[in-house]
Specification:
Chain A is of the alpha/beta class. Chain A has 10 helices and 12 strands. The longest helix of chain A is centred in the N-terminal third of the chain and has 11 residues. Chain B has one domain: Class I glutamine amidotransferase (GATase) domain (Rossmann fold). Chain B is 24% helix and 33% strand. Chain B: This is Imidazole glycerol phosphate synthase subunit HisH.
Chain lengths: 256, 196
């Protein structure tokens, strides 16, 4: 049976892993390969590395650390940040990443999703969607969230954008619910369930994990395929082995 | 032992090469027919789509070279699919050394395609390639097309319907999942292949 995936997310800035609260105020939490190996050993199912400054600064991801990670770890990993062309994607994939994730550049030019899917297959194209509920109650997409001074609120509805990118060739969607991110009060079940209902490809929940019960809720109530978290893992507040034992006790299929 | 990785433009070549290095084996990356024929073990990696995959093998003049090999050959993910007769993906004629047709996962309510993540391997026919696999062992899959189960199936997995996770027809073998990204289970299976 297909397991639900637990995915630690490592935000990368200047070659180090950092974490902020509500996408702001980043502090260094560790070295990339060291943390990647720790999570592999603890039973992470996959890793995501977001180069959070590459996209707003208009530069591409540094392939050196991608290659170092690829040499060391034996679980899949995805790299995001500043991939804005088929050539950029090729460089990261050839360095050893299993998937690439695009976010702001897909909003700049949606055809990029199809171009990368056509070149390398949909299975390696992940589209990250940063979403926030506006005052009128609609979920809408945000762009350039890696840099608060450049973050833009778009008119585009979150569900509309998800539908658009999966038609263009996204093989997986990561929905970052910015309203719950970093505050550890649980995933945005309502938004994720709404996204799940219209998504035919795997859907990854992001933003809000604080306790093991939040993971159980998001798998049971929003039926997502994977749950992504950062700070609760970096701080050691949730250990992946204990989390997985808890999920299995609740009848959720996980890889132990 | 001389292991070669067939360079047909696939993007996971580096990852497979690093996985072999972690097992102490330095594999040569090549598209040279003589070097491929002279190897003790041949690995055909590949991430992408069937039609461009076959086109690259044809352009490199490797179709008959690969078909004629008699040493152990391992296709990984798309590489395994290319060993089959045909793929429904763009209705592509493949190498035809494994008697199967690659099919897209059927549309079904709630079934997510691509099939992505860790899934259980169920051994159906005991074989040296799957030695040491234990009940409940999982491997990492990421694919939208799959080989149906058949007489060539050594281990199956399930996503809506059962499909082949590990296959063999004589010296031609395949793994639908990514052993290079399947932690200890993947390392064991690669070691098994290298010991053939």
């Amino acid at each position: 049976m297909l397991s639900r995936r637990i995915v630690p997310c490592l935000d990368v800035r200047d070659g180090q892993v950092v974490k902020g609260v509500r996408f702001r105020d980043h502090v260094v939490v560790g070295e990339i390969v060291e943390l990647a190996l720790r999570y592999r050993d603890e039973g992470a199912d996959e890793l995501v590395f977001y180069d959070i400054t590459a996209s707003p600064e208009g530069r591409r991801v540094d392939r050196n650390w991608v290659e170092r990670v690829a040499r060391e770890i034996d679980i899949p990993f995805c790299v995001a940040g500043g991939i804005r062309s088929v050539d950029d994607a090729r460089e990261v994939l050839h360095a050893g990443a299993d998937k690439i994730s695009i976010n702001s550049p897909a909003l700049e030019r949606p055809a990029l999703v199809s171009e990368i899917a056509d070149a390398f297959g949909v299975q390696c194209v992940v589209v990250g969607v940063d979403s926030l509920r506006d005052e009128d109650g609609e979920w809408r997409v945000r762009q350039y969230t890696g840099d608060p001074s450049r973050t833009r609120a778009l008119r585009k509805g979150t569900l509309e954008w998800i539908d658009e990118v999966q038609t263009l060739g996204a093989g997986e969607i990561v929905l970052n619910c910015m309203g719950t991110d970093g505050v550890r009060r649980g995933y945005d079940i309502e938004q994720l369930a709404a996204a799940r209902a219209i998504t035919r490809v795997p859907l990854v929940a992001s933003g809000g994990a604080g306790i093991p019960m939040h993971f159980a809720e998001v798998f049971k109530d929003a039926d997502v395929d994977a749950a992504l978290a950062a700070s609760v893992f970096h701080s050691g507040d949730i250990g992946i082995p204990a989390l997985k034992r808890e999920l299995r006790m609740q009848g959720i299929e996980v890889r132990l | 032992m001389k292991v070669v990785l067939v360079d047909a433009g696939g993007t996971n070549i580096g990852s497979v090469r690093y996985a072999l290095q972690r097992l102490g084996t330095d594999a040569e990356l090549t598209s040279d027919a003589a070097r491929i024929r002279a190897a003790s073990h041949v690995i055909l990696p590949g991430v992408g789509a069937a039609a461009p995959g076959m086109r690259m093998l044809r352009e490199a003049g490797l179709v008959d070279v690969l078909r004629g090999l008699t040493q152990p050959v391992l296709g990984v993910c798309l590489g395994m699919q290319l060993l089959c007769e045909r793929s429904e993906e763009s209705d592509t004629a493949c190498l035809g050394v494994i008697p199967a047709t690659v099919k897209r996962f059927a549309e079904a309510s709630g079934l997510r395609v691509p099939h992505m993540g860790w899934n259980t391997l169920q051994v159906t026919v005991p074989h040296c390639l799957t030695a040491g696999l234990r009940e409940g062992d999982t491997a990492y899959f990421v694919h939208s097309y799959a080989v149906p189960t058949g007489p060539y199936t050594l281990a199956a997995s399930e996503h809506g319907t059962p499909f082949s996770a590990v296959v063999a027809a004589g010296n031609f073998m395949g793994m639908q999942f990514h052993p290079e990204r399947s932690a200890g289970v993947g390392a064991q299976l690669l070691r098994n292949f290298l010991s053939l």
